[in-house]
Amino acid sequence: MPLPSPLQELVDPRFARRSLRLVLKRDDLVHPDLIGNKWRKLVPNLEAAADRPILTFGGAYSNHLRATATAGRLLGLPTVGVVRGQELADRPLNTSLAHCTANGMRLHFVDRSTYRHKADPDTLTAVLRAAGAEDAYVVPEGGSNPLAVRGCRALGEELRGHADVVAVACGTGGTLAGLAAGLAPEQRALGIPVLKGGFLDAEIRALQDLTFGGPRGSWTLDHRFHFGGYGRTTPELHAFADDFEARHDVPVERLYVAKMLYGLVALAEEGAFANGTTIAAVITGRPFP
After folding, report:
1. Shortest CA distance to 146 belongs to which of 207, 189, 201?
2. Once rounded to an integer, what is the mean pLDDT over residues 226-234?
3. Is the Cβ–Cβ distance between 251 and 283 less than 8 Å?
4. Partners of 279 in the beta sheet?
5. In the chain, alpha helices (H)
6. 3-state SS, one letter per residue, for 66-122
7. How many C-beta neighbours within 10 Å does residue 258 have?
8. Quick one: pLDDT band at residue 75, thresholds 50, 70, 90?
């Protein structure tokens, strides 16, 4: 696995005409099968599992479930995916869930009410029992816990001295919580949430409290670029991603990376960055086949 992941500078007139420099942190290249922040977040958890089965949670199109299944195959650990939506159990598997089963993950479907309360100890115990995985090591949805946050701190450390602002797309907030902690004091992290709701600020603070005992680093969120919420895209976003790929020959994953890059272009055009700012965009994933 090539770590640190490479930096790639782009010449893009939307940034250059405002005297901004754009570099990509190509975390999508760290492993051919387990990409970017998923590797950084999952490997510490799988090592802590100590040969126990891994059980985790996700929706029907969850990148996290795909990554956990892949990691389990690579490291020889059994995995169980608890999938939101009991009604999906009787339907043909979509490409994401088919990928999970092809990589050895056993799927367990639960109704949406149970899924919403999965963090409740009694509900979790019942889910583990129903899934036949009472001895499993539980990784939370999105993989964001203190081990994952520590794993992502290295991402910030790798970017010290390379950028003034480091941008990353945010799902559950674990990557940003670790990234910000690893950056130098003069740097700041910018998170682009891909979910609606505005709840991530509190989640990131809580993750940093659990991991480091308090806040770490300078970070902010811009909630304007979710394009309708998790898993949602629009023709405008697809057109933007297609154009970015054509300009720079870089594959653009649509659910996270495209939203982050779109947000950076919009912010640049708004004059949100001072002249001379170097912006690093973390490419956390690539399009699935």
Report:
1. 207
2. 92
3. no
4. 22, 165
5. 13-16, 37-49, 63-75, 95-102, 112-116, 121-130, 146-158, 174-182, 200-212, 235-248, 257-270
6. HHHHHHHHHHCCCEEEEEECHHHHHCCCCHHHHHHHHCCEEEEEECHHHHHCCCCHH
7. 24
8. confident
